[in-house]
Amino acid sequence: MTTRPKGLSHEEKRQMRSAARLYAVQALFQMEAAGQSADKVRREFIDHRFGQEVAGQDLADGDPVLFTRLLDEAVTWQASIDQMTDRALVVKWPIDRIDPTLRALFRAAGAEMLRTETPPKVVINEFVDVARAFFPEGREPRFVNAVLDHMAREARPEAF
What we know:
Helix content: 55-70%
Structural class: mainly alpha
Largest sheet: 2 strands, antiparallel
CATH superfamily: NusB-like
Strand content: under 5%
């Protein structure tokens, strides 16, 4: 079982949660692209990506508990999350026609919206930041914001 390190500052914990969200999107993308199981991808990320150095740059430590939860919940509730995402998308663009990175992002964000107590506005802001990491020059972050806002209002209407 993975655990969160103790004795970290609030900012360090926030950074670890943000990194876990980014890693969850990458892991979901990898699972779909390579046909790998959640267990295999989870082990790879926790053992070989969290806090490692790649091309001379340190990768952030991710919160292994949040990462595992997002991955597992996205897999378990994928059909429900995809249906919720489809309702937020334009009819001509069902989830199976959008960019696979965005599809993974919507699944991770949907899992957090549906299966955690994290306020929806925090989920939206965090995953818009993830979209910016993958699409720094594009319009995707605004698209992600709009879709996640629609999903959040459906998943947690009491928060609005």
